[in-house]
Amino acid sequence: MTISAATAFLESAYSTLNKDFFENKLPKVQITIQTSPKAYGHFTCSEVWKGGKKESYHEINIGAETLNRPVSSTIGTLLHEMVHCYCAVNGIQDTSRNHTYHNKRFRDEAIKRGLLISYDEKIGWSITEPSKDLKSYCAKHHWNGKLTIARQGDFGSGGEPKPKKPSSTRKYICPCCGASCRATRDLQILCIPCDCVMEIA
After folding, report:
1. d(CA 4, CA 182)
2. CA separation for the pair 57, 32 (Å, rounded)
3. Domain limits, the chain
4. DSSP string, the chain
5. Which member of 6, 66, 68, 123 has the greatest number of CB atoms within 10 A?
6. What is the value of pTM for the model shown?
7. Cα–Cα distance between 141 and 144 in angstroms, integer?
8. Sign of the alpha-carbon dihedral angle for 91, 95, 96, 99
9. Which of 195, 161, 168 is nearest to 179 (CA)?
10. Residue 40's Cα: distance from chain center in Å?
11. What is the per-residue pLDDT across 146-178, written as a single tens digit (0 to 9) for each?
């Protein structure tokens, strides 16, 4: 599969979802596939793409590192961003905290479109999963298996975060006063007030 084929699929899915979930009232957007190590996707609140003298478009990006998740999950992300688009064009304030915290207005609009939404203290009603109905919808349109390419990056293959590398530093503690610090294993560290060699914890 090529990136252009993946983009074409997402553009086609956008049109189908727009017709079935938004009464075909969402504007045309530019769909991109770019690196996005901290999110599955994003929607630009401003029309960042310009074409000709009068044309301007919002952007929906789908994270390149997680593109090959199960299609229903990627469609769930696309639909999530389409809900942001719906709210933007209809004057519904669905986020705060520099567009990171998703409020109940976002949640309610997302649930109407077949998404399961969970709450997180930092990002609000943002955690998104496809419902059974949305999974069935994807199967009905023969979308399963349509996205088989992903960029290797911070999320790793299939949308899972890469395991953290073991730390090269160690914690040292003074056996006399309990003061601590971190440093590489090769060092010998002295607690000056106690005139005592610190030990690796």
Report:
1. 48
2. 12
3. 3-159, 169-200
4. --HHHHHHHHHHHHHHHHHHHSTT-SPP-EEEEE--TT-SEEE-SS--EEETTTEEE-EEEEEGGGTTS-HHHHHHHHHHHHHHHHHHHTT---EETTTTEE-HHHHHHHHHTTEEEEEETTTEEEEEEE-HHHHHHHHHTT-TT-------STT-GGGPPPPPPPPSEEEEE-TTT--EEEEETT---EETTTTEE-EE-
5. 66
6. 0.75
7. 8
8. negative
9. 195
10. 3
11. 999 999 865 544 444 445 556 677 888 877 887
Joined together, the tokens standing for residue 134 give: 């949305």
Cβ within 8 Å of residue 31, ≥6 positions away = 7, 10, 11, 14, 59, 60, 61, 62
β 95-96/101-102 pair status: antiparallel
CA 19 to chain CA centroid, nearest Å: 24
Tokens linked to 125: 């009603």
User: Could you give the maximum distance between any two Cα atoms of the chain, in Å?
Assistant: 76
Q: Which two tokens stand for residue 141?
A: 């349109």
C-alpha angle 43/49/50, rounded to 5°? 155
Nearest Cα neighbor of 127 from 191, 77, 66, 71 is 77
CB atoms within 10 A of CB 81: 24
- Chain-centre distance for alpha carbon 138: 20
Reported as a single tens digit per residue, the pLDDT across 5-39 is 999 999 999 999 999 999 999 999 999 999 987 88
